[in-house]
Amino acid sequence: xxxxxxxxxxxxxxxxxxxxxxxxxxxxxxxxxxxxxxxxxxxxxxxxxxxxxxxxxxxxxxxxxxxxxxxxxxxxxxxxxxxxxxxxxxxxxxxxxxxxxxxxxxxxxxxxxxxxxxxxxxxxxxxxxxxxxxxxxxxxxxxxxxxxxxxxxxxxxxxxxxxxxxxxxxxxxxxxxxxxxxxxxxxxxxxxxxxxxxxxxxxxxxxxxxxxxxxxxxxxxxxxxxxxxxxxxxxxxxxxxxxxxxxxxx
Length: 250
Known about the structure:
The protein is mainly β. Helices cover 8% and strands 30% of the residues. It has a single domain (3-234), classed as Protocatechuate 3,4-Dioxygenase, subunit A.
């Protein structure tokens, strides 16, 4: 998995995107003690209703707009509380060719926030993974207006090798309730998963958004969706608006 750098520390990642509201609560537990893991940074990112990731320009990323390298929607970081939980206000993710509907998650176990409200950490990543959704729920969401215009091919959970691999050793599917009479009224979703807090890995940023704009890392091998189960496109995480951009190298 290729990391990205310069993420906003924020709860609301929706910006002006259209879609089904999703209030997402993720809890991190220590696999060795079964206790919550507080004061670590949970990072999420996912594509929009038409299958486009912000912060990246790559084949298979939907819109082909060069200015997308500077976009920041549906990406964010939150610090876990005393219960090991982090909350996000986001949207139900769309899909793109070759992958089922999913949200990327990454846990930073020893990161320091920058004064401008961003987080860049490529040396203390304790977990990299993805979370998924019930196929019936995906079908209901995909029938709504913001998602029905998505022209990319839909891959089901059963066709996605990454979903199958993760489901073989854990339960990566988000539990949920409707917040109204239909999915258009929004969803509350929650999930707990375990990490080994004694482990960490280095990851390579695909890009970094500096104060003057996004800069891709030519050595990151970031790219488009590919075939079934293929790697997702990855994008840059932005520096905070109004603050100095991080000086970390991409």
